[in-house]
Amino acid sequence: MTSFLSDHESCDRWCRISGYRQDNTRLPFNDVRELTIPVLDADAELADAIGVRLRYLARHLPVSAPAVDAVVPTNHSPTLASTHRGATGPFCLTNPRSLLAPGVANSTFIPVHTDRGPDPAQNPANRTYDEFLTTTTTLEALDREVVGTLVFGHPEDSLILPRKFRLVFDLGSNDLWVYGRDLRNTGACPQGTPGCPPLFWFQRSTASSQVSDVPHTAKYADGSFARYHLWNDYVYLRPYWAPPPVEEPYKPWLHLTFGVACEISPSFINSPTSGVLGLGRRTDADNPLKRSPPFLQQLRPLLASPEMTILLGRETGYITFGSRPNLSGSSTLGDWHNQIPILGDEHWVVASRTKRLNGVDYKSSNGTAELDTGAAFCYVDDDYVNAYYRQIPGSTTKFFGSSQLLYHLIPESVKTTPRAQFEIGDSLFTLEHSHLPRGAKERIGTTKYYVGAIQRKSLLIAPGGVYSGPDLIGRVALVNMEIVLQMPDNQPHTMSWRRKDTDFIGPSKQQW
Q1: What is the torsion angle, in degrees rounded to the nearest 10, for the CA atoms of residue 197, residue 199, residue 203 and residue 208?
Q2: What contacts 291, CB < 8 A, 6 or more positions away?
Q3: What is the pLDDT of residue 340?
Q4: Can you tell me the distance from the alpha carbon of 222 to that of 113, in angstroms, rounded to the nearest whole number?
Q5: Distance between CA 140 and CA 218 in Å, rounded?
Q6: Secondary structure, 3-state, 385-429
Q7: FRET partner for 51 with CA separation of 20 to 30 A, picked from 16, 209, 248, 488?
Q8: Taking the CB of residue 274, how many other CB atoms lie within 10 A of it?
Q9: What digits encode the pLDDT tens for the residues 154-180?
Q10: What CATH fold (topology level) applies to the domain 30-321?
């Protein structure tokens, strides 16, 4: 067994890293400061069940209008997860299981190396090794959702087995909710029947309890929604280290408050997931029953370093909660842009006063931009988008989806596109990808097109009708960024970022 602790490191540090005392007895849960959420864990059985659930929901789920008493932010942008339109737009495969197949076949935990590196909680240029919690995510392509798995339940609950839920990991929203049993026809698929949809069963559980009878609603910028009740249950977490210091890992269970959906919009019916894990930063802890308490707000007390790192490639990537070592191994990792203030108290919004197109500056109408893993595209001001596509010969538009939204397309034959740059904090980020790959290819007549990476912000839906919030920086840009989001309690939240290769998501085994 290779040791990653130096001789002078104390028992206190070892205990905090491993979850065990030196005499191999377990520590209390609150003493552990790094935990892991398994994500896309090659669960073929769950993949099979999802296909069954999609057919089941299509037959039995009632379709109704959005709830009139929806709770939405008033002074901030709406919760955002634009790819929830996927089933009716051009950005999701018609066969939902093909989205899961790459992860089921190839998904592995991407380990975090144990070298000392910069600490983003203080200064990304001088980070030291600290505790961390990490997940892995798998993307089929840039036009796919970031999908992960949470395990609900408790081992001491003898009445029901832990339940796995495949969720959209969405940086642009705050609500955590899963499909509830009220979405099913109770007579059509009795609990325990093989192949039943992986909904959320509560009938015989002793570990879960309903918090309130008042329904709440999460609304998204594509018009989709989920109506849910608040529940308490446990989520399975575990420490992550390389290599494990003991054969049996410590297995803590986080007591969590979240939403259990009783009604969802039609766009969610054909989703290959069972809910949404919002990774926004809303901080209304003074009124926990107002809406589902954000996951980060509930997780933050467990982290020695309250921060989150996002590192996505075109097909794989990971999200780290808590401090983690610096990554090396890419010849094109850029310099860090440090301590950029986060604005507001809802989402990960930064100042973005200017956009540049082939050297010409355009003033942003809102002056801000929001990071959003739930958005495939970059949604920006209409005048900038129009100017961008005017410089691409043969570009056109096409209506997509039941809402007939007009998207810009780029001919497959185009070899070069304008240089698009967005201000993030006080630095310019250059968009490397002009379009989305694979599933975003379209044909009009005999000409093949790609769906452009930059789209008009007016496509988004706001509570008042016309969206005027921040620009959205979606996955097509995030794959070229290593992002560290700091969220200390009672202190200003900040962001640090640097440029990376599209497919760089960490060191190879030879670099450990």
Answers
A1: 150
A2: 71, 174, 175, 216, 218, 282, 284
A3: 96
A4: 38
A5: 26
A6: HHHHHHCCCCCEEEEECCCCEEEEEEECCCCCCCCEEEEECCEEE
A7: 209
A8: 28
A9: 666 655 566 777 788 889 889 999 888
A10: Cathepsin D, subunit A; domain 1 (2.40.70)
Residue with tokens 């290593």, as numbered in its chain: 482
Contacting residues for 296 by C-beta, under 8 A, at least 6 apart: 279, 280, 281, 308, 321, 487
Give the CATH architecture of domain 337-511: Beta Barrel (2.40)
Beta bridge partners of 495: 340, 485
Distance separating alpha carbons of residues 50 and 31, to the nearest angstrom? 37
Q: First CA to last CA across the chain, in angstroms?
A: 15
Of the ranges 74-88, 373-387, 494-508, which one carries the lowest mean pLDDT score?
A: 74-88
Coil/strand/helix, residue 101: helix
Predicted local confidence at residue 204, as pLDDT? 53
Domain boundaries, the chain: 30-321, 337-511
- What would the two tokens of residue 247 be? 């054969």
User: How does DSSP assign 54-91, residue by residue?
Assistant: HHHHHHHPPP-PPPTT----SSSPPP--GGGGTTTSTT
Phi/psi zone of residue 344: left (φ > 0), alpha (ψ -120 to 50 degrees), beta?
left
pLDDT at 290: 60
Among all chains, which residue has been given the structure tokens 């377990």? 26
Q: pTM to 2 decimals?
A: 0.70
